Protein 1
Amino acid sequence: MVSVDLTQLDIAVRARHLAKPEGEVGLAVANSLNSINAEALAWAFSALAPDGGNRILEIGFGNGHTISGVLELAERLSYAGIDISETMVNEATRFNAAEIADRRVDLRVGTSSKIPFADAEFDRALAVNTLYFWSDPAADLREIRRVLKPKGKLVLGSLSPDSAKANPLFKYGFRFLSQEQLADLLGNAGFSEVSIDVHRGIRKMPNGQSYEAEYFITSAG
């Protein structure tokens, strides 16, 4: 892999690769996100709380290096993931080759607006830091509801709008939703029992400067 100095990357270019990582720059951005998002992923994994034998869908798995963390949440889990980036799907396929060969992992290029799986196929669905890029969140949430079983559970992870204001990166093509907006969208998409846990943690801006951020872990069944 070519070495990429992300501190020298134009902020608009970095934002574009956060939405859809591509090529060597996209791989470097995705690698940096594994550490930046570690805390948020831990919160989301805890909320997901799958039962043994569940089938899990993740929307926007990035480079796939955290898929093993999902599989370790319970016994006999199977995992399917979609990502809009062919670069990410290729890297995740390489990294998870053994699990794919064992048929525990299924990775595909796809979008949340048209999920390439059957109705009521999944017990759990997970989407961390992808909601920002959905052009029609209401329609995408209905599509996720379609592929979940009747008693299935969705977990979303997203920054609060107020926290997003602190980072200039998020001026480029990101959309952040308040707790009220999240609850309304999920209710209209057919979800019930919506709960939003608010967490606070330290995040980094593109220049390396840290700031305290408010983060929403939204669960809906």
Protein 2
Amino acid sequence: MPGEESLVLEARKGDLGAFAQVYEEYFDRVFRYAYARIGNWAEAEDLASEVFLKALQGLDSYEPRGIPFSAWLFRIAHNLVVDHLRRKTRRPTEELDERMPLTDASPDEQVAQTMTLADVRKAMGTITEQQRKVIALRFAGGLSIAETAQVMGKKEGAIKALQHSAIQAVRRRLENDGYKLDQP
């Protein structure tokens, strides 16, 4: 995002308008990451809002040092998702199947996408937790390989390997379930 560092500096000085611009730029990406990890629309919205509340409260502790603000923000999101999932395993609940797509498609397209999203989520259940984190950060969160590596505390090569093996495993599962997928 152009001027990200200057916006963050202005927000640190108390300019809430600058923080609002950062919020507008990243909310959807943080939400998509949370939704990809949690699978519940309302909880993902709440968690994304909590990410920005924590970011605003902790803005003074952000030090760039070559790390993009987005990596710092997604680290907060990652930690909140982990906490949420831990709490959830202690208090199991029954989820409503919201089947909400992540696009502004027409109702017919939404039904087709929803079925595909449900199948992809099912296939994602066959990969490791680390692979799911990489996929969620890279594709739902829109982070680069470098940013994902910073958030997860891993080297870029490890992120590339996790991403590749995750995509291959999901592809195999979907093909076994009868989907005809084009090879990259």
